[in-house]
Amino acid sequence: MWGRGILGWAIGGSLLLVAQPPANDNCTNAAFISFGSPHNPYAVGTFYSDTVDITAATLQAGEYIPAGVPNGKTVWYRFYLPTTRTVRIVLRQVGTSIDPTHVGWTLYRTNSCLPGAAQRVDPPIVLMEGYTHACLKRGWYLVQVGANLVASGQIFLELIVSSPQIEAGAEAYYDHMATAQNLGLLSTSSSSVLLKDVTFDYACQSVSEGEVICDNDSSWSKSTWHVFRTDGHVDWVGIELSEDPWNSGNPTPREWRLFVYQGNALTDSASGLTPLVSCVPLVQSSASVPSRYDFLCQLQPNTYYTIRILGRTDYAHRVRLRLYERGSQPSVSPNPLTIPSTHNLGTLAFGPTYTVTDYWSCASRISSNLCGSLGTAVTPDDTIGDFDLALYYTFTLSGAAHVRLWHTNPWWWYYCMGTVRFRVFQGVPAVDGCNLTHRATVDNDGWIQCLEAGTYTVQVLARLNRSVLWGTCWGPYSALGLPVNLHIALGSTPQQRFGLHVRPDEADLINGGTPLTPGVTYYATWDTLDCRTTVLPAGDVCGGGNNRAIYRIIQVDQPGILEVGGGNWWRFRYRLYRGDARVEPIVAGRIQNLIDQMGCQDLYWPAKVCVTPGYYTLVSFGDDGDIGERDRPWVRLHVFPPGERRFYDPSSPVSLPGDPDPRPRVEQVGTLGG
């Protein structure tokens, strides 16, 4: 009985002493290593796994273990990094029972079981020792601890987690507010608006707890910080980011998100930074098109600003950051109610060119200087369009004149500035109020014809921002921050000589008013349409807009063909009338009794018309757009010997010789040849 009892105790006791596999023996049951509380995954410091007895651990079917790592049995751990971290992993034991050469470990970037070589983070560790991974990206990780079958004892992992450490090999420059890159002062240069041009490796940067990410997307997991200061005057700052050199192996497009804060990250706390823009997409689709963002009239002078560039977990390459700035002086005359003496040109004279220099600064925004019709669309002539910057000056005319308005700048600024528009108003806002009468509009360089005596205000317009791709101008397609030289000059108004303003004297008499000599070409006297409209012949005047005419009188004393040619065929239209426009009556503002002889002609090819003795009037017609245009047509009379014009007069028919009987004659028809 005793023996059996002893035997039974021995058997039962041995069953109780058989070790059980640890809970994390299987990959799917990997023990989770927490970094602080579940609500603070960004915690850094030293963290430990649970301690397990590896003695009874097993090996799963199909489990991958790298060459050199002990492979008789395994246990598993897992952890999660919300951003880039430098992590030192150390495999430790309780006591000294395990030979350090009998245990090793492998790190995998995955949360899926079973991982393989593709998920392995090199190097695998073949001993019980530690290894520092300088740049572990955001994501889940599995740690596989492998041991020989003879290994027996308790083990645990020690993880020392920190922000990416440059001294450990992490490429993590400008990773935090305290290590922000100081770009210094942005101060406009006369030679270039590109003021800062730096490159750095975007690789192991992280985000800190509390830093904003975009789109509720945790893959925005690393950022860089940069600080700059504006100078005493700033109109525009441009921020450009690009991959440089372009790496064709990276996925397209390259994406970043831009944050800009007012404040200095190097000296201010996070709460001291005032956000201006957040999560602005910067997207680069090709090497030749950098991603850029403009601050137009949004930044203050003599102020610190902080840039934060947010990137995705898996993006890494060298990037180029460029900062541009434009703006040197405030506008001199942006307010139409307070136009300074420098912009009051006084009474203009013929001959000199008057020049005013000014600047398209943020102060020139129309929205900041609203003044009646000067700041809104003019009905029915909406000429302000989408222009939103304005400068002003005034001038006075002592008499009617043609006025030329234009601007000049170095040629490359034209790509930035685009169209500059001049709008001319009668009166001065400070005296006559803001609802002035709009008189004319000129783009870039042009003439205003026939401006009468008086005082005028010129509104010069440009655009804050045009929707055009960046290009030659090294900046936004905007006039903002650029100087502009504004010019004005006068041209004398021509005096029309032959417009019948005073009848009968104001008409051109071809051949001095005497009859034309056949075969001789007579050129009219040059004449130019001026600012005045003229009396017109009754009926069609070769165009509904024609309101001006030049009159030339032709005397014919014998029948013939009158040929008319020359003239300004690309501007004028011509009509020949029978009758003398100098003496015919005027009814309802139109000359009566003139009989059209050839319809409307442009005289590109000479026109010919049969004439009989009498007076004829050749009229050149034009409209407002033809002011300043002139012409000089010619005429020529063709006549023939009497024998060649015997049958022109129906009142005196002529019979054919030898045929007194006008009745038809019947001839006898014979047979040819017989």
Please characterize this protein's 3D structure.
The protein is mainly beta and about 675 residues long. Helices cover about 5% and strands about 40% of the residues. It contains three helices and 42 strands. The chain has a five-stranded mixed beta sheet, with no helix packed on it. Strands 2, 3, 5, 8 and 10 form a five-stranded antiparallel beta sheet that branches. It starts with a helix and ends in a 36-residue tail after the last strand. About 35% of the residues are buried. Residues about 1-15, about 470 and about 665-674 have low confidence and may be disordered.
Report the C-alpha radius of gyration, rounded.
47 Å
Helix content: under 10%
| Terminal-residue CA separation | 174 Å
Uncertain ranges = 1-17, 468-472, 663-674
Number of strands: 42
- The rough form would be described as elongated
The largest beta-sheet arranges its strands as 1-4-9-6-7
Number of helices: 3
- Determine the oligomeric state from the structure: single chain
Largest sheet: 5 strands, mixed
Beta-strand proportion: 35-45%
